[in-house]
Amino acid sequence: MFPKHFTPPSHTAFQALQRFSLVSEWLYNRPITWDRSTWQPKITPREKLAIWCFLSLIVVSFATYAVFILLRQLVSYQKDPDVSIVVGIFIILGSSGFTVAVSILLTETFKIDEFHVMLTFLRKFQALSAQPSDLFGLFLHGFILAIITPPLTGCTLPILAPKMDPTYLWFRNVSLISNRLKIILRSTVLCISILHACSELFGFAIIATNAILTLNVCLNGGKIGDMRAKFVTNSQIISNLRRYRQLQIFSSVVNLVLSYILPVGVSLTFLCMVLMGYFLIKMTHMVPYTVTFCLSSVFATLLVGGVAILPRMANIGANSAHFLRYWKLQRVSRYLSRELKSFRCLRLDLGHFGYMKKASKILKNGSSLTILSGGTLKKFSSPFLTGNVKKLYEHHPAGGRDEPVATIDEAWFRVDDHNGTRSICCALWRSCTN
After folding, report:
1. Are 424 and 392 spatial neighbours (Cβ–Cβ below 8 Å)?
2. In the UniProt record, does the keyword Membrane occur (predicted)?
3. Quick check: is 2 in a domain?
């Protein structure tokens, strides 16, 4: 029984970042650490990053070897008999996760100044905008357990299923050491590499989520807070425009940091979710229960995170446009009017492929439909996934006829309205189930 006046501890998104940093920095030093008294980020000297560099080399080596095995299996005429379909799925999942982790490691190495500036802006705007203690903040706190659960699961895999993890291919031809020592070495390598990769992946996910939430909260606060007032003073206009200029700089730095991580992470996360969905439906009886539990937890985390974060990423552009539209309708001086014209809408770039907008929700809807329709391998052999692109047809109620819109690749990016999104998703569903 809880006490009568029990109040749960605060669990905002930024507090999730603080508590995650406490756990990760307790293990070893990171390129950027947080001052415990002021919670300001600071760059760690290189001489204190020996453990971090060593673990990063292990992660890079593991990712390179996994990609090499995949390419060798695709190119070679005679396949390796030890690489079964379960081992192949594990190799694809491992190479995808470690590839995203490598992109984060390279960003922290070569863009450390931009990363530090982003965290400094994040701390500043977090003090200006109050974040609620909601379920999403509690969900981000669950990432702290992700540092512990996957490494422990990876440790047990060489013991419970010796021929299923990719490290078996490393030591199968080594005859100088005993089998027990091989299992110990394999468990150690898996534990260390997965620990470092998960700390980088989930830590950066919390940082990126805080940046997205901060942009939305600041844009909504500057617009809605002044709409309640009957009159708007010049000081209010100037303070809001100054904040928007700071948000422009902050969003530019965020785009620089996410320029390589976001496109790699979104594409490989989609691939991993498809494979994990098929694995959890068809192959759970072939692996230990610990692996099934870990994969189901990661799958649920990725699904909930995608559903919760992608709309917030797309709302940044809409909130920015509403912010500028509201202040352009106010009576301001010529100087402030010229300043407003120089402002541009904020957006999150998907690398060199475009930027997030509301029409990009079709990516989330199409991904969900593809995952739901992936119960068997037959459903994955549709023309959409094999490359034989069909013509899509969109119904026009006024004309009463069906007309071809575009190929599925073109329609994926061209449809901007909700009706079009619904029709394209229905076409995706039909093409995947036929």
Report:
1. yes
2. yes
3. no
pLDDT band at 263 (very low <50, low <70, confident <90, very high): confident
Do residues 276 and 402 share a domain?
no
At residue 207's C-alpha, the angle toward residues 43 and 324, to 5°, is 110
Domain boundary among 321, 356, 391: 356
**Amino acid at site 331:** R
**What's the pTM?**
0.77
Give residue 216's domain range: 13-356
Structure tokens at 195: 């620990």
- Position 363, amino acid: L
Give percent helix, percent strand, percent coil of the chain, each to the nearest 5.
Answer: 70, 5, 25
Do 252 and 264 lie in a common domain?
A: yes
Q: Which two tokens stand for residue 222?
A: 């500057």
Helices 234-257, 179-227: axis angle to 10 degrees equals: 160
Mark whether 35 and 54 lie in a shared domain. yes
The number of CA neighbours under 13 Å toward the Cβ of 230 is: 0
Residue 344 is assigned to a structural domain of this protein: yes
43-70 confidence digits (pLDDT tens): 999 889 999 999 999 999 989 988 898 8
Instruction: Specify the pairing of strand 391-396 against strand 41-43.
Output: unpaired
- Asked whether residue 83 falls in the same domain as residue 162, the answer is yes
